[in-house]
Amino acid sequence: RTLTLDPGAMLLGGFALGVAPALLEGVAAIAAAAPFRQMATPGGRRMSVAMTNCGAAGWVTDAAGYRYATADPLSGRPWPAMPPAFRDLARRAATAAGFAGFDPDACLVNLYRPGARMAPHQDIDERDMGEPIVSVSLGLSATFLWGGAARGDPKRRLRIDHGDVLVWGGPARRTFHGIAPLAAGTQPDTGETRINLTFRRAL
Ligand code: MD3
Ligand code: FE
């Protein structure tokens, strides 16, 4: 199913199903070089989602704030390169959603275990907000929450499943969004976890 959630926001149901095994192999290789870690918010709280990155830049948070960094703070080394299968999928999804020409330089990899959540927020650390964001869901299903351009706007709930891709751009780019606490379960490809790949043009 392909569904327009809002102008500029599209759900491409199952778009990544065929390449999911290749994406998960990529995640394993990335995590071997740059392990998943639970980063601290600027306010000093540990995030429930464990994160790593691949690409020229990676999203990080610590006491100094939210930002993109070209090196992994844990190792001081550059983030692992973005696997070609990641970039290809992101570009095909962006094109299918009307954003031809997207070329991500950052992929944030989010690992959710049962109970992990992401509080509603905007993604505004990227330099050019004219570029879309492509998000790929793998493993356990989750409840995606999305509101509007203001924090207080009512939230809608959408179940997102293994292989689903969401693309946000244009007028939807500043939408507040989050993930409800992950329900426990088991999924053949990812076990007791959900993995989300979020492709951005950061620099
Ligand atoms: C709407 N990740 O990493 S993906 C994030 O499933 C993030 O891990 C969630 O929000 C996850 O920042 C949600 C869907 C998503 C991603 C980016 C967006 C929705 C978005 C950017 C703008 C508007
Ligand atoms: Fe986000």
UniProtKB/TrEMBL annotation:
The alphabetical list of record keywords is: Dioxygenase, Iron, Membrane, Metal-binding, Oxidoreductase, Transmembrane, Transmembrane helix
The membrane spanning regions, by residue number, are 11-36
GO molecular function terms noted in the UniProt entry: broad specificity oxidative DNA demethylase activity
Instruction: Look up keyword Iron and say if it applies.
Output: yes
The cofactors named for this UniProt entry are:
Fe(2+)
Cross-referenced SUPFAM superfamilies: Clavaminate synthase-like (SSF51197)
Sorted alphabetically, which PROSITE patterns does this protein's record hold? FE2OG_OXY (PS51471)
- Tell me which EC number(s) this protein carries: 1.14.11.33
User: Does the keyword section mention Transport?
Assistant: no
- Top-level division of the source organism's lineage: Bacteria
- The broad enzyme category this protein falls into is oxidoreductase
The record places domain Fe2OG dioxygenase at 103-203
By its UniProt entry, which PANTHER family does this protein fall under? ALKYLATED DNA REPAIR PROTEIN ALKB-RELATED (PTHR16557), NUCLEIC ACID DIOXYGENASE ALKBH1 (PTHR16557:SF2)
Question: What protein am I looking at?
Answer: DNA oxidative demethylase AlkB
Natural source organism: Sphingomonas naphthae
